[in-house]
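chain and backbone:
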Amino acid sequence: RYIALLTTVIILLLLVSPLTFAATKEDSFSRLKSLNIVVGDEKGNPHYDKNFTRAEAAAVLVNLSGLNAAVGSSKGATQFKDVPGSHWASGVINVAVQTGIINGYPNGNFKPNEYVTYAELAAMLVGVRGYTSELQGTWPNNVIVKAAQLGLFNGFPVSDFNQPAVRGNVFIAANNAL
């Protein structure tokens, strides 16, 4: 009896433990880096506490979607007046926009160096997961609710979705999206 009870307890702990421990920013970065989704800076440093730009978000989400093979042939002229063809992210921006992962602004700008907010990140990740067409309600509440349902922001608190997304949290959210 005791052996059966002990075996049952061990099995339950093994099944429950992955659900109760969220991945850290370090674990998430390491996993994403091993999958060639993120690279860090020129030295490979993740800079966990820095804000994430819209161009960086486009790059991560294109890689997360498995569309990185299309980036090279998409590099060059963009539809945005603030993203020249020579911009380092022109290829990922073109792929991200063509696939609906991310959008520009009505004034014809993309704002590649602006910081992405948590609400924008929620919209992008929900889109990458393929749930955009079924969303109801108004933006940004609809994408925030769906992101919460999918557990995309598990592992870090977000008190204001209009604040810039911090790199460490983006890594966790992208890892959760996998």
